[in-house]
Amino acid sequence: MNGAAEPALRLSGSRRRALIATAAIGVLVYLAAALVTDASRLQAALRALGIGGCLLVLGASLLNYLLRFERWSRYLRRLGHPLPRGRHLLVYLCGFAFTVSPAKAGEAVRALYLREHGVAYADSIAALFVERLLDLLAIALLAGLFVLGARAYWPALAGALLLTAALLAVIGRPATSRLLDRFAAARSGRSRRALAGLADLLRASRRLLSPGLLAGGLGLGLIAWGVEGVGLYWICAGLDLPVTLLTAIGIYGIAVLAGGVAFFMPGGIGGLEVVMPALLVAQGVPLATAVLAMLLCRLATLWFAVLLGLLAAAVLEARPERLPPVATR
């Protein structure tokens, strides 16, 4: 990214902590409202699932996060930033504190921490962009496990696959970056910096889409999100619901896609909450129980991630050590 544009993106430590505190308050308010609404039934569902079942489901979510971190760290190494894994893992997890932002855009807060250690904004945002792109493709493929038998959802699956293909085509063409460079050269001020930054972002993203990285990233995405679907299956099994493993994985995939359609809603909230119970009801699950299964799934995925993110952000702010800087390109 153009060096002149980067200073405007920096946040002081106090402002960053205020941002984290605001996110924490917002999460607590939403979570409290969700728990109060169905507190008694949710407690009964947790008892039915048991401690062992809860740990299994949370373990599935944790494995999802670790697999995606492995992919993320590969991307940054490819861009020339081999960072120590312990601190880097905390930076990656802290992004989850802002998962409930519209379109999960708040996860880009990682760029603020990484910039202090020599990682250009274009590189960290490119890693986030490619991660989102491959997640979309992986989730769409997993959704196919359910969608192939439910024609009503074919348009959603086709749309996700076409969007992914279109974005890959745009990123993969060097001419796109060159065109943006020409537009930037003809402008000045913020417009010039924005266009130049976007061109840098596309160039960095293209470096992450070599055949090996693309196949490896997609493979890790399929495993990571498939494991989350297994978590939903364990929830259904704990509640004695008539849902098979492949059906649970497919239902989770199509529900996450539905959350993606609610693009500007925090964390896709609303889309998944409607679609997942509806899909479970179609499998013969009573509506009240289907809603409970959805709430348990949300607690073990979205809200567990947010909690880990807040803890990671707190550690980073409490121990603001700096990594050896890596020269930016």
What does the model show?
With 329 residues, the chain is mostly helical. The chain has one domain (3-318). It is 75% helix and 0% strand. The radius of gyration is 20 Å and the shape is globular. The relative contact order is 0.16. Mean pLDDT is 82; it is low at 1-9 and 323-329.
Distance between the termini: 9 Å
Instruction: Give the fraction of residues assigned to helices.
Output: over 70%
What is the number of independent domains?
1
Structural class: mainly alpha
Uncertain runs with pLDDT below 50, 5 residues or more?
1-9, 323-329
Number of helices: 12
How much β-strand is present in the residues? under 5%
Tell me the radius of gyration. 20 Å
H/E element string? Answer: HHHHHHHHHHHH
The biggest beta sheet reads: none
